[in-house]
Amino acid sequence: MAGRSSAVRAGALWAIAANGLPWSDAASAAVIECWMKGEPLKGWVWADDPFGDIAARIDGASFSALARTLFDQGTADSARTAIDAAYERCVRSRSARAESAPLLAAGIRHPDIGVRLTAATAIRDVAEAAAEAVESLAQQVADPPPAAFEDVGSLEARVFGAALEALIALGDPRWRRPFMTALVAGGITADALNLLIDTGVTADPELLAAVRRRLAALPPEGPAESGGYDAYLGRMQWHNEVNGLTRLLHLWGPVAAGAVPELVPLVLHDRGWTVRALAAIGPAASAAVPALTLVRDDPEAPWGRRLDCARALAAITGDTGQVSARIAEAAACGEPLPAARTAVEHELPIDNLLPALRDVAATSGGDDPSAIRRGRAARGRRPAAARTPGSRAVDRRAAAGPGRGRRPAAARASRTGQRRCRDTGRRLLRSAGPPGRGGTPPAPRHPARPRDLERETAPAAVDGGGVVPSGLVRCPIST
Predict the structure, then answer these.
(1) Is the dihedral of CA 197, 203, 205, 208 positive or negative?
(2) How crowded is residue 243: how many other Cβ atoms within 10 Å of its Cβ?
(3) Alpha-carbon separation of residue 466 from 223, 416, 420 (angstroms)
(4) For a disulfide at 277, which of 47, 249, 322, 427, Cβ 3.0-4.6 Å?
(5) What distances in angstroms separate CA 26 from CA 31, 81, 89, 190, 311, one per listed residue?
(6) How far apart are CA 26 and CA 453, in angstroms?
(7) CA angle at 29 for the pair 24 and 33, rounded to the nearest 5°
(8) Span 323-333, pLDDT tens digits
(9) What 8-state DSSP symbol labels residue 287?
(10) Among the listed residues 338, 325, 295, 331, the one whose alpha carbon sits nearest the alpha carbon of residue 456
(11) What is the DSSP letter of 126?
């Protein structure tokens, strides 16, 4: 195909690879020529990743040589393509990691920041490459540019964050000083905080001081709900950061007692881990008793928060009688699920809650086939033979009301809540043993896992609607 354009030759190479035709060394050499100056198949409609399809046909040693040539001699776009393909091979095959790790490690030292970001994001998931690039990673976080702290969405900040996470995952202590500097400046994402929690990082005076300084710099509540989309993003960012910092303090427990002054202002506004962190700190959090009591006794507060505060007060003061009183009050107010969760956690009897739990467990969530068939019959739809595609759409819109054929958001959320309540009630019934006799609390057969309790009681919304993500969604590294 001498004299043809790079796009034509690249398309022919992709067709050979995609159709399983014989592959030769000359074809590999042609791949290097076609991709040396960047992506030749821009807007290629036949495949999402034509170079990846071609790379999958090349054996390990040949691919390593091809990718290294593109990385060393090609443009920045070619280098990113090579690293992307190497990362995909590492994801698909563990045996390919030893051959591809050197290329990923070399990407951290590339002069183009886009290539460094692609490599750092890949290394974060490939431990073999991270171990080989540990010195380069430490250099990236030791002296980051000012832009890394000014905008967490900038390329510099993303390279810094990915390198920092790789060091944390490796257990290399050189992450600590850059992390504390970035944390105080507001340049740490929720992913890094969550990684500290997942790896069980222990507290030290300097790290605790940095967390306290950041909590003190945050407002006690997020932006007002009437501020539009920017305010919504601000509330989401505030929630994620407060949630990460307080989860970290919860992990540290009594060691984090020095952070109580920073946690107290958050009790009235945060629906996440602030109260649980105070409970984990224990008696040393006595300064939070007035704020916790205020929320516990607030008739306008949700019962989940009120019972969380009651549990925290019990952990701080040792008064478990007020927990039993709040459980009974919640049950009397028609809230058996949070009441039962609290009782199970404190190993209190739930005999008086069993009838209400059985009612919740027997409640249909609206998703069983019989309910769906009854709903269709009630809508009076025409027989199948009399319906056309257009009439089917009219039926759907007419049955669903406003919203172009979908149930309104409130109805969807209500049905989801019904299913969640039903499932939780059934699990609590299974976890409860036989009714206690002689005032002895029943022993749970299968105690509810803390993970389940945390998921069910964790706040899911900022303004009563949308779910708050815990961090940025990880996209393909080439984007």
Answers:
(1) positive
(2) 23
(3) 16, 13, 16
(4) 249
(5) 9, 20, 22, 48, 71
(6) 60
(7) 145
(8) 999 999 998 88
(9) G
(10) 338
(11) -
Rounded Cα distance, 423 and 361, in Å: 7
CB 168 within 8 A of CB 196: yes
pTM: 0.71
Q: Using alpha carbons, select from 140, 297, 244, 133 the residue that is nearest to residue 468.
A: 244
Cα(169)–Cα(172) distance, rounded to whole angstroms?
A: 8
Q: Which two tokens stand for residue 58?
A: 């090349």
Q: Smallest Cα–Cα separation from 89: which of 116, 62, 117?
A: 62
pLDDT digit string, tens, across residues 394-438: 444 444 444 444 444 444 445 555 566 656 666 665 655 554 433
In 3D space, the residue among 249, 266, 265 whose CA is nearest the CA of residue 257 turns out to be 249
DSSP string computed for 315-359: HHH---HHHHHHHHHHHHTT-HHHHHHHHHHTT---GGGHHHHHH
53, two tokens: 């399809």
Dihedral, 287, 289, 295, 296 alpha carbons, nearest 10: 160
| Of the candidates 276, 310, 330, 331, the residue with the CA atom closest to the CA atom of residue 450 | 276
**What six digits make up the tokens of 94?**
């563990």
